[in-house]
């Protein structure tokens, strides 16, 4: 049974922002819980559901509060404007108390941005089945792996009739919380009294609200010991030679042993495969020979397909190498760019892969990828310099796999078994044609993008305005200049 299947009978936690996703006019509040439960049942989830409704509850009518509470929905009062960060904090706490398998659902219009970034990182470390619901603003930054993202109103429409409440049974489960004062009670009257009390008013007035989003994962350490299932599993290394080149005077044969030793030091001993990405016509032949002799594969790329090929290759690799396994990314761009690391991030949320990063410059912001270890490229390479005796042993063992170093042209998707065959391929007519075709395509894409932006600007500004069109005739622009820019 996969982790997600196991979650189907486990706990479901629901965090609901009532400001973003209110109960529609005339809708019976007691129907909210059965509607949510029904949505889960339809998808095969039968675990116990806990729901908490967040809002400035001084604004919520008593009959709604009573309806929610009587159907087992907990009610939380938050100061208006801070609901999202309180919900997020409570969700993180719940995750700590309820380890996976389990399922979570966020009902909010504010999942985009800080919330989804932090949740995407949380989900890489501990995987829960994730459901989203929204009213007006759908989460569309594609950082999260979720099972459904439904419209709130539609979810309610499909819901059933109010539940038959056995007196005293469900209402005992539903609590009222004041998140400003850490106050809780089980009676609506007490809750109402609290919200209108001097003490609550004072707390609201003197305690500054949590204005900043509290990230749960920003302070996570970067080095974690290997878990038993990852310690001996495969490790695949994607090495961006443009961002992290071989330093001047460094013996290229030491790259593989350095990487392997860095893994060994933190407890990983699985077989390591390495692919080096670059315009290989620019790589010195002695580097190609040295790396290839240690079993490093080469991928020939050009700038405009460099990262896309690395990421596509990673996806293909995951298809034939199911988790548990590890991936190492050696690249400044993939480590720091949200858009470049998005696809890898999705895979890490979905499967039990482990991730390592190396970069020549530390990313200025916390990477989207949750890693088990990170290295500065140069200090990683220096590992073998200080431990040459072990390096010698590693290199010996590497010779066994020396012939596995493959050369692949990522423009034509052509594999070559030897450097000679690879060089021949890179200079042959077919390859050159492919290179020209790709270049022409990129240029035409840039031209049409520019054209598109110009016409969009004209649409917005309703231009070109008459004044500008007349300008050259009036002599505002010197004549030769009109032809200097295309
Ligand atoms: Zn209070
Ligand atoms: Zn080619």
Automatic annotation (TrEMBL):
GO terms for biological process?
regulation of gene expression
> Which residues lie in coiled coils?
none
List the Gene Ontology MF annotations in alphabetical order.
RNA nuclease activity
| Stretches assigned to the NYN domain | 11-134, 234-333
Q: Which InterPro entries match?
A: Marf1 (IPR024768), NYN (IPR021139)
Annotated Gene Ontology cellular components are: peroxisome
- Tell me the superkingdom of the source: Eukaryota
Query: Could you identify this protein by its name?
Result: NYN domain-containing protein
> Upper lineage ranks?
Eukaryota, Viridiplantae, Streptophyta, Embryophyta, Tracheophyta
Q: Where is the signal peptide?
A: none
Pfam families reported in the protein's UniProt record: NYN
